[in-house]
Amino acid sequence: MAHMNRKMGIPSFDLTGKTAIITGGTQGLGFGMACALAAYGCNVVITARTAAKVEDAVADLNENYCKGGKALGIPADSSRQDQIQMVIDETVKEFGELNILINNAGVSGPTALIVETREGRPEYTAADFEKVIATNLTGTFMFCQAAARQMIKQNATNGKKGGRIIITASVGGLIGGKGVVAYGASKAGCLSLARTMANNFGRENITCNCICPGYVVTPLNEKFFIDENGNQTDYYRQQSKATSVRRLGTIEEIAGPVLAMCSDSFGYMTGTYILCDGGQSIPAE
Predict the structure, then answer these.
(1) Which residues are catalytic?
(2) 3-state secondary structure of 87
(3) What is the spatial distance between Cα 143 and Cα 22, in angstroms, rounded to a whole number?
(4) What is the pTM of this model?
(5) What pLDDT, in 10s, does the model give residues 214-243?
């Protein structure tokens, strides 16, 4: 019996010829995302505040990860509007257009409670709160706005090629966490921002989504999870028990979903998020 030719297209994650900006892209999750995109042909522009870190990460990307594309580093503060626009302008000058923005830059802020309790832990101050919101939410909004403006401008010239905007939110934006007042609020705001942008930019073929990681071991937090002998710490084991898979995540396990979200194969997904938390947000047995 002859089989029907169903003419099913095979999903592609090839990003050859596309250009992405990844904020906070010199280490941890941001660098992992940059590596994944670069390995699939994308030009990647990474930003961070420290010029030396940017230079080192770009050299690593160009030498070890770029496959057909190129990495460019631009030192910049993602909470400053003038520097955000400078990054957009330099990206377009170098590569001709902007196709993908990954808003990954963020700060955690101090660990404090909303109101002081008998535990003796400090209260969260308004200044602390505003500092976290300025980077994690206001800065994200301004970068999204500038990127969308550029993508819409490109649409007017080249047809509705559209674009992808992805925000690194967090499981902390979905569930309340003790002592991370502003961080959780900022990430919840990012989830709402992505939905609003998706509604605003959908007709321009610009999708807007979030990635929501749980605990992931990165160079910044590794000292809390891995001891000097390379063994898991008590803190690692404690946090692992809060997940269904009984372990913490890896950078690659976050970079993979982000790569997919950047591709043409995820063009129908917008205004939502991928939760990548090992089951932290559901009751663990």
Answers:
(1) 183
(2) helix
(3) 11
(4) 0.92
(5) 999 888 788 888 888 888 998 899 889 989
